[in-house]
Amino acid sequence: xxxxxxxxxxxxxxxxxxxxxxxxxxxxxxxxxxxxxxxxxxxxxxxxxxxxxxxxxxxxxxxxxxxxxxxxxxxxxxxxxxxxxxxxxxxxxxxxxxxxxxxxxxxxxxxxxxxxxxxxxxxxxxxxxxxxxxxxxxxxxxxxxxxxxxxxxxxxxxxxxxxxxxxxxxxxxxxxxxxxxxxxxxxxxxxxxxxxxxxxxxxxxxxxxxxxxxxxxxxxxxxxxxxxxxxxxxxxxxxxxxxx
Length: 244
Prior knowledge:
The two termini are 28 Å apart. This protein has a single domain (7-241), classed as TIM Barrel (Alpha-Beta Barrel). α3 links the parallel β5 and β6. The protein has helices at 29-41, 53-56, 74-87, 120-128, 148-166, 182-190, 224-232, 235-241, and strands at 7-10, 12-13, 26-27, 45-47, 64-71, 92-95, 132-135, 172-174, 195-201, 213-217. By secondary structure, the chain is of the alpha/beta class.
């Protein structure tokens, strides 16, 4: 049986404010360290999308778990980065290029809290620690709602801005809000990205479409056992196939 690969999806590594709209998006630093420690104990190598290219392409059969963060929040720099460095894992963070050092303007009006995003200096330190920089668009727009020229601008400008500011290739993309269709996928490819992650649940098999990669969303309100089940089994893939 072909081994499948878990791509983990995080947003915030911190304690949820008491009035948080989506507290499940927060994983506490203590829980995150426990999860990373268990990955290592289970024999996984924690890697960024870039560092897991061989496994995702089916060239290597190493046991990997891919670690990703959407939006580039400051608490990922403050709380996740030290843990990743301590354990020896790498990860990919998808940044909204026009919102570095600001906050999540795309969520305002639908959530209570304002979440600060990493500054340019913090992003540089993230990269210097061996982590990957990916794109989450310029403004976190829903790509299927954009005119074609706006979609292209979001993809191309974000890539160019991040590459210019940080001197590193940006080849990984995350669809804002998990929103995509076949036309958007084609535009992501045309913009020069090599992969794109979705919010569709499940593990990925080697040689799956690199522009429709599934991920396992981490719910901060659940304990360690669901995490272990999700990273070691195909439960999420099975669950998605079940009728409503």
